[in-house]
Design brief:
Length: 212
């Protein structure tokens, strides 16, 4: 009898351990927040007024529409995951220099990254890299420029946070992350305008996740 129990119990435990070791889950997370932008190297080349290059002072206005938000889809295997994330960052220039009257990337300094995430109990850490899709707007020497959405550069991020379980599948999140993105865009308008921005920023978000 003992031999029979050993022959059935030990393999069953091994199978269970294997399943736990390779447990896989999916999660969807949505967050909202704000950002602090460090001085960002900014360059414009305007066909009529020439070239300007300075360290721009930008703010995000995260809780003004369109909001500063992030969402991600994650595939967890044990305590590691691959994530697809969109961070909808925004930039509003606070120190325009003549002939620049206004400059913003408010409909998206959109950072799209593939992240590698790790979980340590309720704590998480991640690193990611990917492209930036922008929608820039400007007013220079009386001429308005608007969009389009364009693949304009690349960015990387590092971050971490904590989750708080609410139900079996639902949980709350609090996170901080740092990003660095560089873009070169050509907003529509005449005379021709080209601009580049190198933006380092810190982000804070809260949100909800659902695990399935």
């Amino acid at each position: 009898m003992a031999r029979l129990l050993q022959c059935t119990f030990v393999p069953a435990c091994a199978v269970l351990a294997l399943n736990v070791t390779h447990a896989e889950t999916w999660a969807f997370e949505a967050l909202i927040g704000d950002a602090y932008n460090f001085h960002s190297s900014t360059r414009i080349e305007h066909e009529a007024t020439g070239r300007r290059h300075w360290d721009g002072n930008y703010e995000t206005r995260g809780l003004e529409g369109p909001f500063h938000y992030a969402w991600r889809i994650a595939r967890w295997r044990d305590d590691a995951a691959w994530e697809l994330q969109l961070l909808h960052h925004k930039l509003y220039l606070q120190d325009p220099q003549p002939p620049i009257e206004a400059l913003s990337v408010s409909h998206g300094f959109n950072i799209i990254t593939i992240n590698r995430a790790m979980r340590f109990g309720p704590w998480r850490a991640r690193v990611g890299v990917g492209p930036v899709v922008t929608h820039a707007e400007a007013r220079i020497a009386g001429t308005s420029y608007d969009g389009p959405y364009e693949l304009a550069g690349a960015a990387f991020l590092v971050g971490g946070g904590r989750e708080v379980r609410l139900t079996e599948h639902l949980y709350a999140l609090g996170e901080f992350s740092a990003t660095y993105g560089h873009v070169e865009a050509q907003p529509k308008g005449t005379p021709r305008l080209e601009l580049s921005i190198s933006n380092p920023a810190l982000h804070a978000h809260i949100g909800l996740g659902y695990r399935f």
